[in-house]
Amino acid sequence: MEQRPFGPVPRAVAVIGQGTWYIDDAHRPTAVAALRRGLDLGMTHFDTAEMYGDAEAVVGEAIAGRRDEVFLVSKVLPGNASRAGTTAACERSLARLRTDRLDCYLLHWPGPHPLGDTFAGFERLREQGKILSWGVSNFDVPNLDAAWKAGGEGRIACNQVLYHLEERAIEHAVQPWCEAHCVAVVAYSPFGHGSFPGPSTPGGRLLQRIAANHGATARQVALRFLVRRPASFTIPKASSPEHAADNAGAGALSLTEAEFIQLDAAFPLGPRPRRLPML
Question: Which end of the chain, N or C, is surrounded by fewer C-beta atoms within 10 Å?
């Protein structure tokens, strides 16, 4: 599995990680087995959140006895992200995850509390060793500018954003901003929401052709396209060990520049939206 620098974090992180949104809807032993299979295959970046129902508990079970192998990320809800509320939310997440620390803790999206208060809570947690770094999620450029001002240079580890072949809005300004400021970009929902291009579509047929050239799958090709830039990561979800193995296969896949150009043309960027898409 390829690993890369994760913003200012002094640790390389797997380029293909594991998302857990709705993973608690799956048969729990199967979901745990999927996460463990992904971990076996090098997908050591685990992403979860207090908003994700029982997902933190599922992750805690999956990583039991293997915590040191994992780069563990969770997120605080904006409504809980006051200075004291951030600390309390983190401690609840740690209890559900059955660990003493998070490798990165994120503000799930911009909310009602001043960023200075949220980040002060993050810094207190970092000083206590309960988190090792912190970042944000669903932040557009104005939010990122405000976060940079409130948090200080070199503090924001990552910005986790919606990004898939048919939703590339971050490429207009968010991704360039993050690259210029040494902030990792983490793509969530990399297959969209039930709309992954099938073989009956032109884009889907292209994915299949490129996949066949490499002995890969269409989904592996899609994941590799999303992490083609050096500061990019992605966190696909898998609800079975087989799906986890398929996702992990993207970690060593290498596409040609011509193939990237073909994919770029088949799934055009589109105009910049007024608001950054999320969810």
Answer: C
Query: pLDDT for 104-124, tens place per residue?
Result: 999 999 999 999 999 999 999
Cα–Cα–Cα angle for 94, 243, 231, nearest 5°? 65
Instruction: Give catalytic residues, as residue numbers.
Output: 52
The answer to whether residue 277 sits within a structural domain is no
State the CB neighbour count (10 A cutoff) for residue 270: 12
Say if residues 32 and 61 touch (Cβ distance below 8 Å): yes
The CATH number linked to 87 is 3.20.20.100
pLDDT band at residue 195, thresholds of 50, 70 and 90?
A: confident
Domain-embedded: residue 28: yes
User: How many beta carbons lie within 10 A of that of residue 107, not counting itself?
Assistant: 28
**pLDDT digits over 151-175, tens only?**
998 999 999 999 999 999 999 999 9
CA distances from 142 to 105, 110, 147, 160, 177 (A): 21, 11, 9, 15, 10
Domain that includes residue 29, residue range: 3-266
